[in-house]
Structures are given as C-alpha cells and as structure tokens.
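Cast an eye over this sequence plus tokens and explain the fold to me:
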Amino acid sequence: MMLTLRNVTVTFNASTPNEITALNNISLDVEAGDFITVIGANGAGKSSLFNVIAGSVPLDKGKIILDQIDVTDWAEYRRSLHIGRVFQNPAIGTCPGLTIRENLSLAALRGKRLGFAAGVKDSNQQWFYELVRSVNLGLETRLDTDVSLLSGGQRQAISLIMATMMRPKLLLLDEHTAALDPNASSQVIDLTVKLARENGLTVIMITHSMQQAAAIGNRVLMMNRGRILADITGAERANLQYGDLIDLFRKLHSASELTDRAVLS
C-alpha cells in the first residue's frame, strides 16, 4: 500500500460546547497508482482528511503509514518531501515576485541541502522548458515572466508542474479547479490526468463536482460528518454514471446538502 490510515480521529475544540469531530475513526488503504476522487458536503471532513495526511493537523488517535513508513509523528515539512499538494487558490502554490523559471527551480530543490550556488542552474534550463512546453499553454516562451502576471488557470498549471516534477509518492489535490472558469478548469483537469498517468502518481483529489468525480480516476470516496460513507471501486466504479453518483449522494445525505454547485459543475 502507498498510504494507510488506521482508526484516524481528529476533534476540534475538545471538551467545549463547540466540540466538533472532524474525522471519526477513519481507516483507508490507498494502493500505488490509485486516482481517488473525494466528494461530500461542506464540513464532511474532506479538508481535515488532507490536513492529517499532510501533517498540518495532529491526530487524536490513529496511525498514518506512507509507503510502508509510519509517518504519524512526522512534521509537515518532513512529509512534504514525499507529498505534493495543490490548493484551491492558484496563488498559494507559487511564489509571486518570482518568475516561472525561479519557481520551478525552488521546486527542483525540494529536499536538497541549500548553499550559496546559483538558484537557477543552467543544467536545468532544458528540463524546465520541456516541462512547461508539455502543458500546451505556450508558457515555455514566458519562463522569465513573474507568475503573478499569469491567469488563474496558467498559475494552477505551474503549481501542478511544481507539485509533480519530483514525482512525489502521493499527490493531494484540494479542489484545485474550484476557483477557475469552466475552460481553465477543463484544461487543468486534463493536465492533472496527463501528469498522473505519465508519472505513475498516486492521487487523491477533493472535488465538489459530481461530473469530475464520475469521470476521473478509478475510485470514489463519499464523506459525511467525518466518516467515509461509500468507497466505490472495481467494477462498480468502472460502470459508475453521473446520475448514479447523484442518486447515491441523495440517499446518504440530506437533500439540503446537495448543492447547485455539485450538480451543475
């Protein structure tokens, strides 16, 4: 297994009137090469799941095993050497004030000892050019452009390249197309699938889009109130249609939790 969660529980504001169980005794096995989409209403525990995997939120109890190594007590910065992550906000994954080339250079240095050598190595130039050219957005001619001048979709594409260029053991995508217009969202999703396939990545992707969940990946998790209510895989996942997912969501959730955003996006 690439990732194993065992009896993971997280509670916020424990022993107060505002106590919330964000994750309730969750166990999960993720095989190498899985592409999992995660859906659920707001407050279902999706982001909390990502935060405990990434190490930004501590567990109350349970274990997290990454590629046969117990990382439960590892700090977030240590896990980040093995886990790539792309967030909903395109501004989070890149550094404004730095060019595309400089951002890629930072990503290439992840996990390496830093010294006083030049930040952007000549030996990496062709690599960066080919990486950016492969996304088919014409950005390979703009490597010296500040990323703050890019559109949201272009910036998210660069974030994806940065998160995957060192081939992490696990890639976490936290609604990474939610802030984009439909055209940019489609381009970024296509790029996501392409990079995952070409690099043999293990991917977990949170989405509010039922269409994305039904169309992408080999497995769907449906969450609510800190629990995994459904884990759709195998032949059931292969035959899953958009309407089937809507029906299952309605069955397992209250009608008020099925938003227009989930149905229409």
Observations:
- The chain is about 35% helix and 25% strand.
